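INTERNAL AUDIT FORM
Audit reference: QA-55
Scope: verify that the stored structure record matches its stored sequence.
Auditor: D.O.
Record contents follow.
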Amino acid sequence: MSSQVNAAFDKERQHGLLVGYLPLGFPTVDASVDAAVALVENGVDVLEMGLPYSDPVMDGLVIQRATNTALEAGFRLSQTFDAVAAIRARVDAPVLVMTYFNPILQYGVEAFARDLAASGGAGLITPDLIPDEANEWLTAAQAHDLDRVFLAAPSSSEERLASATTNSRGFVYAVSTMGITGARNDVDTAARGVVSRLRDSGATNIGVGLGISTPAQVAEVLEYADAAIVGSALVSALAEGGAGAAGALAKELSAGKH
């Protein structure tokens, strides 16, 4: 069994990884593919492509607006696989799909895992799914050799952190603040605490997200974590200036890796 994401971490162990988030279908499906490719061509190591959802309770306004635009333009769940395949045809970076779990249940967990694997996707990040309730997904992911990324928060118990560490493959996603996503001036110091506790639980690949928007913050996070995850800042750049602007910001952010 081979993990695309583990391979990316192993390759960049010395510098750390930059993970970039964009919503699928924003502003159009083709444009989201072009923007994803631009991120990778400018230093993003792993892509996190968000599945538009009608009730994005954990997303900040920037991402909510973008996903609403995609849904209003008629984005359908089945387009996920063509988009992932189109990205993978142009760049070699792993593509993780970030999604609330309800759309996966509606599509069928086994069917989604099968179709994601067939498209070249690396796996799923599931922010509202805890490992204790993820048996069907874990079984399907194992069967189709997909990575599964669970979240860990400052409020997580030691048992929950241990469960996230044991059941994740690829990395554990440490959220640095409680609340919704969005760029902040200071990455919450609580992130250091979560990462330290995850290390104690045996986690080797840890990414930190929620609030990272500058090269200095990327560098700061990579002092203690293995990946810096940037979302809202890249989505804002895409909204304001298209794929070129998103790529330019990715290039800027990737300077924080060295």
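Auditor finding: record pair retrieved intact. DSSP finds eleven helices and nine strands in the chain.
Action required: none
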